[in-house]
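This follows on from our talk about sequence and fold. Can you supply me with one protein entry, sequence and fold together? Could you add the entry underneath, on a fresh line?
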Amino acid sequence: MDLLTSKLNWYDLYRTNYDLTDLKGANRLGKTVIDGEERVYKRGFTQAEYTPFLRNASTLQMAGEGPLLGDYLSDYMNREDVRAAFNLDSSVPTWEMCSETLRYNSQDEASYWIYPILRNKYRLMFYSGDTDGAVTTFGSKEWIDRLNWPTTEAWRPWFTNGQVSGYTESYDGLDFVTVKGVGHMAPQWARQPVTDMITAWVHGERF
């Protein structure tokens, strides 16, 4: 199974990975010139680096091979003209997909503990792309159900231009929304539906 799924994007299972770069030493590091100084940056991330919590990483990635994801974005963001467009000072480090400085520790409860603290102090909304294989809609629905908060609006579809864009259910203290056919980066791949949904939610309107 690991071999058969080794080139899937676990953060967006239905998203096609175009022109994947095989992870080889020569492809891992990129070089750019900033103010006449050559700098090195890490190109993209492997699936194993994105999801270190997945114990059964693919055999290819465990062997230091397999595809790089987002290497093209790393190259683009580190171009000198792109940095200039963002008004970045030359002292700003090169850009990488995820932080190598911050270290995230796994907790059994993840962010579960914060919701009861925030309840009734702030309006809370949790949305989930339903093709996210890393932070799954099913898993999110499970921990939300375990909050045991009363349901104030039953599970129903929500629409964009007459088409189903996902489903939503409201609890006493939290709104849960799914986004249909996209993964972890739902706003990137479902721009109008997510923009309309969040705008309506912020203004307290039904969507």
Remarks:
- Residues 1-106 form one domain.
- The first strand starts at residue 21 and ends at 22.
- The mean pLDDT is 86.
